[in-house]
Amino acid sequence: MAVNSIKLLVWVEAEEQPEISEAYSVSAVPFFVFIKDGKKVDTLEAPASLGMAAGPSVLEAIQDLAKINSSSQGNTGPSPSAGVTDLNTRLEKLTHSHPIMLFMKGTPEQPKCGFSKKVVEILKAENVKFGTFDILSDNEVREGLKKFSNWPTYPQLYCKGELLGGSDIIIAMHEGGELKQAFADHGVDDDVSKSAVVEPNGQKAGVTDSAGLSSALSSRLESLINSAPVMLFMKGNPDEPRCGFSRKVVEILREEKVSFKTFDILSDEEVRQGLKVYSNWSSYPQLYIKSELIGGSDIVLEMQKSGELQKILIEKGIISLEDRLKKLVNSAPVMLFMKGTPDAPECGFSSKVVNALKEEGIKFGSFDIYSDEEVRQGLKTFSNWPTFPQLYYKGELIGGCDIVLDLKSNGELASTLSE
Predict the structure, then answer these.
(1) pLDDT-derived band of residue 19, with 50, 70 and 90 as boundaries?
(2) From 232's CA, which of 90, 102, 245, 252 has a CA 20 to 30 Å away?
């Protein structure tokens, strides 16, 4: 797309320019500000998964603004295309593109979440050569691979096209000595493993010895990171955050009802600069859960929206599965746990309940139980109801398909869901 009225495009590192961020009320990145004749005409907060790529919403906004300018010549040429019409074929090729293939957030040099960083470190420790794909750079791959692999989170590690698992499984296999055997079983030979991708000095990424930090500072940083199960390094404090990004993460943690401790990096320059090196993460805030770096504000925001943050908090023992389920069933006044989505139900019973609610004009939230096996099995026990779909009103179970259809046929569904 060519838009001739866009005269200048400027990139700003938001965390390093707090005055600009505050002036435009930036709380998450990427954030786009459109300026014409020296005046702000529009803003756009793009999805965290967009990363540095211009997604459709950004392009559309630029296009709309360009039309305002009389000198605009509109669009020319075809729209971008992945060049592959069959997504599954593309995913098949990607998973087989290297004997060992990691789908991660970011790159090995700049991982964008602690779990991706950990798997990269493990692969380097295993002394194997591997390819990577940054799922933040391509939302089609990101969402498609979840269904392709039937695995809802990232990172995902493949060997000869076969999914080995995510970070927890890879960590366990590595610690148990099973990962090396898995590579051997898949025919990853010695020649491949000897051509390793390692840091120039042979150290793992983020190891403090290779970064030149003193042992005293390294020990202090480690102690700070471990000082609470959920630890946030931020600008300011929870009651008086000094930047929009720190404020956003505090709000998210409070929404999740998680107890957390903070450290004001503006109060200690040694910690502020040292932690960037220690964590191999160049900006703030930084969120740690059980000593593992989760990421900054955009990653945390994205994880909250996708439900990954709650899942991690459960896996790390910060909150219980029961607490998560209570929050889910209360996440909308009328909440439907179903197979698939309202637009694409994956079973006839779910489809019937969706149609019944729509015909009654009832607004409802939904959760695809295929996307999270822990929720799927846990909710059966939580509700003492063994099948799906399950419909809730204000946190109370109404019932499954038969009950919902009975209520509708008796003219009681709308009144039941509005009492």
Answers:
(1) low
(2) 102
SS3 content of the chain, % helix, strand, coil (to 5): 45, 15, 40
- The yes-or-no answer to whether 208-315 and 328-416 have a common fold is yes
Q: Which CATH architecture has domain 208-315?
A: 3-Layer(aba) Sandwich (3.40)
User: What residue spans define the domains of the chain?
Assistant: 1-80, 87-194, 208-315, 328-416
155 upstream amide cis, omega within 30 of 0: yes
> 123: which 2 tokens?
């692969």
CA distance 371 to 164: 18
Nearest to 235 by CA among 246, 250, 251: 246
- CA angle 232/237/238 to nearest 5° reads 80
Using the predicted structure, report yes or no on whether residue 211 has a pLDDT greater than 60.
no
CATH 3.40.190.10 fits 328-416, yes or no: no
Superfamily name and number for 87-194: Glutaredoxin (3.40.30.10)
Q: Which two tokens stand for residue 187?
A: 């025919």
Q: What pLDDT score does 210 carry?
A: 33
**Calpha distance 46→107 (Å, rounded):** 21
Structure tokens at 39: 């005046």
Least confident of 141-150, 163-172, 191-200: 191-200
Q: Exposure string (b/e) for 271-309, b if CB count within 10 Å is 16 or more?
A: bbebbbbbbbbeebbbbbbbebbbbbbbbbbbbbebbbb
Residues 387-403: tens digit of each pLDDT? 999 999 999 999 999 99
State the Cα–Cα distance between residues 298 and 38, nearest whole angstrom.
28
Name 273's Cβ contacts closer than 8 Å, sequence gap at least 6. Answer: none
Dihedral pair phi/psi, residue 63, rounded to 5°: -60, -45
C-alpha dihedral (406, 407, 408, 409), degrees to nearest 10? 50
pLDDT digits (tens, 9 = 90+) for 90-103: 999 999 999 999 99
Amino acid type, 202 = G
Cβ pair 294, 316 in contact under 8 A:
no
Question: Which H or E run includes 383?
Answer: helix 373-383
